Amino acid sequence: MQDADVAFSKAGVLYVGPTYDGHVDEEIAGASIMVMPGLVNIHCHSGDEPIAKGLFEDVGTAVLWGNALYEYSALVDSDADAKAACQTVMLSDLMRSGVTTHLDIASPHSKWLSLAAESGMRAYLAPGFREAQWRMAGSHRLDFEWNEAQGRERFAEALAFVDQARAHPSGRIDGVIAPSQIETCSEGLIQDAVAEARNRGMRITIHAAQTMAEHEELLRRTGETAPAMLERLGVLGPDLILGHCIFLDHHSWARQRSREDLARLARSGTSVAHCPVTFARSGMTLESLGAYLRAGVNVGIGTDSYPFNMLEEMREAMICSRVAGRSVFDLNTSGLFSAATTGGAMALGRSDIGRLAPGAKADLALVDLSHPAMQPIHDPLRNLIHCAAERAIRDVYVDGQVVVKDHRVANLDYDGAVRELQDAQRRASRRAEREDPQGRPLATLAPYSLPLAARG
Questions:
Q1: Of 51, 144, 136, residue with least CA distance to 89
Q2: How far is 175 from 177, CA to CA, in rounded Å?
Q3: Which of 4, 228, 330, 427 has its CA 20 to 30 Å from the CA of residue 202?
Q4: How far apart (Å, rounded) are the C-alpha atoms in residues 412 and 123?
């Protein structure tokens, strides 16, 4: 709409239309502003990803299809002293890119819940648990080290945490049941976790079909793809969000070519959290977002890892979809924007977020149309996604309360958290050298992109 008013309060969006004649306490001049619903991020990780920046973008395990997850990324974790800083940076970067709701999959720490509440964002906190750890044998084989008792203990702790999250007085926080990866949890644990989630009326999320190594491991164990296995277990459904869900039976890298998995997902109402950036870095992509949507699968967007920039993630999603679909017509801006708003809302079982309409939550972002990156203006939404990204996000509101004002995060010490990351990365890097099974130094694990010149 052009030349429209949007009236909102803590209670929600009150009016969207040509002229609002009701009482107002404050008027925000909108002559050079685009108002849009806050973006809904349904898959991100605050635990260690902010300190992984700059380490492993150019490496991968060749025999695992070039993926860096198992051999490299698994070596880096933030220590207890860095958890709050990592979460603060992630929350701040998300808000600065227009996100008002996020689903964070992480290991609980003492400030996880309080920081999520302090930020002012709408939060779905998903404490991960699993029974197996990944173990790399050299750089040629992925093994699994099982400890079912420990997995069950972490599961119990996760249940206690999600109950605590749901009871938070802010009313903006809920819990999500999150078996960490489909291949690191037994079938019994997955079924028990889903039963507990459904007893509580909570969402479920699990990483599934995220790598070819996982895809091949499930075929070795069960002869099934991830959606087929979850269908057999009675897990698929509209309350389930599958993280990534790239390597299905139609993917060009897979062996089956049976093309049944998309129908399984669409038929069951299962949602997919699409996070293109981190996988595109390793030369992998979903085939394709447009194809999933045309098949009737509900897809939302997540950032997964750094740079925690939802608008950059959306841009990458469109580019990857058009490349994988080999057509500019594979996905348009409208379909992409729907995935990042109402698609994410549907995945979370919400009809009151991701949209601007009377009765919806007052979660919205104000885009500065006068920003140079937004000029000239024919279609401001295209300008935002294809060009300006977070640079044009001026203000962000959640429940009618400002969380970003004039490009600055309102409720968190973003600058202080950023200053902590350098030392946190150094500590994590030293630990990675100690824990690498092959004893490699950081210079081998994460070589510089350009050689350092010798000092004169």
A1: 51
A2: 7
A3: 228
A4: 15
